[in-house]
Amino acid sequence: EKETKAAEEKPRSPLKIGRDRFPIGAGVWLIWVGIGLNATLSSLGYHWIVAQSISLTFFGIWGVYNADLSAVVRRAMFALVEVFFKHFDVAGAARVPEEGAVIFACAPHNSQFVDGLCVMKAVQHRKDVGFLVAGSSMRKKVVGDIAKALNCIGVERPQDLAKKGSGTISISGDGTKVTGSGTKFLTETKLKDIIKITEGKLKNAGARVSEVISDTELVLKAPLKDLASGMKYKVVPYLDQSHVFQNVFKRLRKGGAVGIFPEGGSHDRTSLLPLKAGISIMSLGAMASQSGLKVKILPLGLNYFKGHQFRSRVFIDIGSPIIPTDEQVEMYKKGGDAKRQACDKLLGSIMAGIKGVTIQAENYETLQFFRAMRRLYWHGKRRMTPMERFGLTSAFAREYPKVKDKPQVQAVYKKVQEYRAMLKNFAVSDYRVQKADLGDDEGMMLGKEFLVGLVLYRVVVLAAYLIAAIPGSLAAAPYFIISNYVSEKKAKEAAARSSVKIAGRDLLATWKLLVAMALVPALHVVYTFLFWLFLGETASIVYFFFMPFVCLLTVLSYEVSQKLYMSLMALIPQLMGSGSGVTVVAKRREVKNEVMKVIKEFDWDKSLRDNDEMKHLYKQISQSHLEPMEDDDIDTCLPGLSSDD
User: Fold this and answer.
1) Cα 254 to Cα 211: distance, rounded to the nearest angstrom
2) Distance between CA atoms of residues 393 and 371, nearest Å
3) What is the rounded distance in angstroms from the CA atom of residue 537 to the CA atom of residue 541?
4) CB of 543 within 8 A of CB of 531?
5) Whole-prediction pTM
6) CA 391/CA 611 separation, integer angstroms
7) Is-contact 289 250, C-beta < 8 A?
8) What is the pLDDT of residues 288-310, one digit of tens each?
9) Distance CA 312, CA 345 (A)
């Protein structure tokens, strides 16, 4: 009890102490003096930069002692998220309690730095949320400073402290006996450390050390699959994480919020990694340490759509809360096997909750198959809401493992992929093909003359938007070149080091944002100096204060230009009489009919029918599919400008 009490006592920060010693009245006078000095120096003829700098110094002192640093950093990070993502949608925000102990179980961890920012923005009314962050990240200059300002808890990961072992090893006997050549087991390893093979047929295999006999002999706790010799290895140290759990218990006992990615490290896979037991220990341990405490575990699904690209989309789904039962808490208190069973049972519930708010796919192509099925299943002129898009996609993904080996499903899978390839070849989106199929085709209704005018009009508009985007594009070119190079390099390095990453795509968005935080302000200052050097002071002032708005115009111009370009790619074949529109629309109708047959045959949309929040969508789609579809009623012009859902 004394140890727990001592752990909860934390020295107050110098900033907080200084703020308490700084009277509110004195802060008001600081601002007054700053304004007065600015006016006085300006009237005496001093340069405006001198006057403003001295004035801002007083404002800065006031801000340091009065502004909430955490709130400032949060707002700045949210601004980055808003700029990076074009669409940021959240479902289930009402499930987040205003106060009380809560753990956010977030998955999948597909974007190393960005995931945490997205979660905090999604639950921003819980300003007390702090994430468990890898110690290696906490030690990084920029990321670590931000994490500390955002109330995060550092946790060391054994894999981050792994060291290359001396010499080579051989596995013999029953698979637990390790003999070394040139090894230093007595000094480099200790009990409970993990010996992990780094090359050969046993690469990434490993087991804990149960006994160190000599510098060249040790015994593993569990046997390895195969016997082999002359292998290089690394030693992953055993870490006592009790102090981390105590910090989490402390925060939960105070009614705080903790965010955790229970998969462990970030990855770029399309399916979840096995969850670590830490999240169940944290919730059960906190409840066991204080009678009457109820810890809510909220599954939170992060669903990115081309999430590593600038101006992409993210959809966050927050599931129903999971509260450990009193029986599980009592089993945890008993320790031993009972504790392990309680943790495993709770972990299973958490995994089920996370699966309910994420989309699971074997690979990227299968994930695209689910999304294509969603669009083919949908039969309406309005756009689906983010919740409906996610609900449909996850419904197909959830039932897919049960039917994927059926010949009918495999045939549909092949046809859907053929249709996707056709869309790519014709440079047209499924949304525009759907519009033609539904009859929204002003080009065909008004004749070829109208179609010619429409193409010319959009070419002129596209040219205007591209011209408007030139200044900002030139200014931003160094950033895009450098950020792409750095992010790709970091992704390759991470993929080479990791056993769970495929291509390291989970680091792309992170490094693009980190590069932006350093490079964009630096470029802005350099460009301002160049304007002053070649065009004079007035031009540099105008550039410094108004160029950010030009950059915003560039982003908007780029997005509209993309839509215009894609619509032209669909219109031009019709103008040239190639008939590709007929081919694509006919293919879509064929694939759509096959998809609907398979869905009905295997009751694939059952989860929609059973979901209270999605029943309306099921009824609407079922009713729309009862309407007859004539094969000869196919429009051939695809001029729509709306973006693909």
Assistant:
1) 42
2) 6
3) 6
4) yes
5) 0.73
6) 9
7) no
8) 999 999 999 999 999 887 778 88
9) 37
